[in-house]
Design brief:
Belongs to the pseudomonas-type ThrB family. By secondary structure, the protein is an alpha+beta fold. The protein has eleven helices and ten strands. It folds into two domains: 100 residues, Phosphorylase Kinase, domain 1; 203 residues, Alpha-Beta Complex (Aminoglycoside 3'-phosphotransferase, Chain: A, domain 2). The longest helix has 28 residues. The structure holds adenosine-5'-triphosphate and L-homoserine. Adenosine-5'-triphosphate (ATP) binds next to strand 6.
Length: 323
């Protein structure tokens, strides 16, 4: 479920009329997604031949003062030829508006479906698309600090007692105990750009084996490009429970990335630690969400252990995880 706010047809038509996109024809709530309300909007289009958009209402987690960074980033990357949806600006040139006290944005609709079991060919294409975003991101003039660094993730986990963590899973405290050690080992100095930070397969739209769109840039920030690749490896190259690696998918992802932006020796050497830091970020955010979300809520809680297992895998396998 991902329509948290009811918007009546008159209110929707009024909102769409503030954009030069033709008249509202239909609006359907999009079931996927957790954080925001999303609608698939059809209009008559500027030239009467019909057009589709996604309307997003920012419900939680996103600080609205970050929206100009996120929406400006979509416009920048789209203008640089990356497969990301551009923001539609209203008749006054604004990228976002307010409805019922909440910020909304109208975004270009991109075709495609997210792979649920990505193939190596799809991972190769995702790697290429990520590298293109990194190259184009170096020319984005705005900055945003990453709030989910390894240090901050360790800080989040430190707020919960061992027994509370063990209430989620008996093995979770052991992973949490290693968090500050991972944070301490993180080195600066790797090449940086704008990173997506959350490029799970469900944030990639594909037509066959080709990426048609990267979406959900709401964790984007400045950071090490190799870290983003490592996060994407963790998100793509395992079974959902994080028990078994699909090495072919992982290799294809990195090979696709390097076909556009080769890694330096330092970046390659750092991948196992960066992947542990990436996993730590999801262990921390999922643990925090777990305690913030009642068990009977409509939103399904995500299991931090899926990434605690991946973290242990990267720790044990080292460079072998990328071979
Ligand atoms: N620009 C787009 N073009 C086509 N479909 C889109 C677009 N943006 C979003 N979608 C669709 O809407 C769904 C929900 O979007 P999204 O994943 O951004 O939701 P969210 O609630 O903002 O994020 P999350 O689930 O990560 O919290 C996506 O799975 C995708 O199907
Ligand atoms: N993609 C994240 C949620 C958004 O940060 C996860 O699976 O935990």
């Amino acid at each position: 479920m991902a329509v948290y706010t009811h918007l009546g047809s008159e209110r929707l038509a009024e909102l769409i009329a503030s954009y030069d996109v033709g008249e509202l024809v239909s609006a359907k709530g999009i079931a996927e997604g957790i954080s925001n309300s999303n609608w698939l909007i059809e209009t008559t289009g500027r030239d009467g031949t019909g057009a589709r958009y996604v309307l997003t209402m920012y419900e939680r987690r996103i600080d609205v003062t970050d929206l100009p960074f996120f929406l400006g980033l979509l416009d920048h990357l789209a203008a640089e030829g990356c497969a990301v949806p551009a923001t539609i600006h209203d008749r006054d040139g604004a990228a976002c508006r307010e409805v019922e006290g909440k910020a909304v944005a109208l975004i270009e609709f991109l075709p495609g479906v997210s792979p649920s079991e990505p193939s190596p060919a799809q991972a190769h294409s995702a790697g290429r698309a990520l590298a293109r975003v990194h190259l184009a991101g170096t020319r984005y003039p705005h900055t945003r600090q990453n709030p989910l660094t390894a240090e901050n993730s360790a800080g989040i986990l430190a707020r919960f007692s061992e027994s509370r963590l063990a209430g989620i899973d008996p093995d979770l405290p052991a992973t949490a105990a290693r968090a500050s050690d991972i944070a301490r080992q993180m080195l600066g100095g790797l090449p940086e750009s704008i990173i997506h930070s959350d490029l799970f397969p469900d944030n990639v739209l594909m037509l066959g084996d080709e990426v048609s769109g990267l979406i959900d840039f709401y964790f984007a920030a400045n950071g090490a490009m190799a870290y983003d690749l490592a996060v994407t490896h963790a998100a793509w190259a395992f079974d959902p429970r994080g028990e078994t690696i699909d090495a072919a998918v992982g290799r294809a992802l990195v090979a696709g990335y390097e076909s556009v932006r080769p890694l330096s020796a330092e970046e390659r050497a750092a991948l196992p630690l960066l992947a542990q830091a990436g996993c730590l970020r999801f262990v921390a955010s999922r643990t925090e969400d777990w305690f913030d979300t009642p068990g009977d809520a409509l939103v399904r809680r995500k299991d931090p252990m899926e990434f605690a297992r991946r973290l242990e895998f990267y720790r044990d396998a080292g460079q072998g995880a990328f071979a």
